[in-house]
Design a protein that fits this description.
Layout (H helix, E strand, L loop, with lengths): L2 H5 L6 H14 L5 E2 H8 L3 H14 L2 E4 L2 E4 L9
């Protein structure tokens, strides 16, 4: 995915946005998010979460960290 498209949050589907936000909430506390935590936080089916995680990781929005996920590289910060 190009840098331009990655920077455009409007390119994300509603499911992808919900999954990304669930991971980002934990990132504020320097935590990674497991699939189970994301399913619980989003109330989405596990299959949809796993598909979205793959899409987001492939695009660079998220990165796999063992069995969990973290926010990928970006040039903005989250204020506490």
């Amino acid at each position: 995915m190009s840098e331009e498209r990655q920077a455009d949050v409007q390119a994300l589907s509603g499911t992808d946005t919900r999954v990304y936000e669930a991971v980002a909430v934990l990132a504020v506390d320097d935590r990674t998010a497991t699939v189970e935590e994301i399913v619980h936080a989003t109330d989405l089916p596990e299959e949809a979460v796993r598909h979205s995680l793959g899409t987001l990781a492939e695009a660079g929005w998220l990165r796999a960290d063992g069995a969990a996920y973290a926010v990928g590289r970006h040039d903005w910060s989250v204020e506490r």
